[in-house]
Amino acid sequence: MVNKVEVMGIGLYYNTVGEAVEQAQRYLSEGVLHTIENVSMEMLLDAQKDKELAQILRSLHMALIGEKEILSVVNGEGIGDLNVQKMAEIKENDFFFELFKRIEQGGKNVFLLGETKEKLANCEALLLDHFPQIQIAGKYPVDNCNGDWEAVVNHMNSTTPDVILSVLKSPMQEHFLWENKEKINANIWYGLGEISKKGKPRIYSFLQGKLLMTRLKDGIHKYEAAKGREEDELENRNH
Questions:
Q1: Residues 69, 12: contact at Cβ < 8 Å?
Q2: pLDDT band at 199 (very low <50, low <70, confident <90, very high)
């Protein structure tokens, strides 16, 4: 059973890391593309203005809570229970490391997609540092393609990847997926999002994090208020 917590109309995966990794392993053997992404506070806020982005996030097979602050805000709004273990799993990005441990052990290969050669090098270094036996099928910096997504997809498919790991920034990452998901020949798309120069998931400063949490709280209030008005109007029309 898939447990989800809803934030402004986006259902975020709320199962344990173990359950999530087991589900992802099933995806690896099913022969069709399954989509997984780490969802940030910024992505949730952007989705309120970008309806296509919202649609894409809702269509993901696994929209993972990418920042522990999301869980803090959600708990403060009374949606779900604050789970200490879950907070720790999100903070340490346990799903990413557990999944790629299984990918390495299973001899599956990975294609890396990023904006620049430098960002791809950071991503590859992160993988090889933790998973020295992992098989890199190929990589592609999209700043070389001049918007020709077809060339990117053709190159990607030519390497017959099991997993595509994207470190593109949002919403470029999601729009690329949306436009090309029917053409991609892989079992898993994992949108990790931007990582730092040291090859670590991007970390906000304390002030940036607090500002985003405030904006997310405000966004939830506005969404719930608008949803309540719509429900009241619908009930009035039905009477």
A1: no
A2: very low
Q: Tally Cβ neighbours within 10 Å of residue 166.
A: 24
pLDDT level of residue 99 (50, 70, 90 thresholds)? very high
Tokens of 184: 């991609």
Segment holding 127, helix H or strand E: helix 117-130
The three-state (H, E, C) secondary structure of 171-230, written as one string: CHHHHHHHHHCCCCCCCEEEECCCECCCCCECCCCHHHHHHHHHHHHHHHHHHHHHHHHH
The number of angstroms, rounded, from the C-alpha of 74 to the middle of its chain's C-alpha atoms is: 18
Considering the entire predicted model, what is its pTM?
0.90
Question: Which amino acid belongs to residue 4?
Answer: K
Q: How confident is the model at residue 232 (pLDDT cuts 50, 70, 90)?
A: low
Give the 3-state secondary structure percentages of the chain, helix then strand then coil, rounded to 5.
50, 15, 30
Phi, psi of 81 (to 5 degrees): -105, 140
Whether the upstream peptide bond of residue 141 has omega within 30° of 0, thus cis, is no
| Phi, psi (degrees; rounded to nearest 5) at 4 | -135, 150
Q: Say how far apart CA 75 and CA 81 lie, in whole Å.
A: 6
Six-digit token pair at 20? 């999530």
Mean pLDDT of 23-43: 96
CA 214 from chain centre, in angstroms, equals 22
pLDDT range class, residue 75, cuts 50, 70, 90: confident
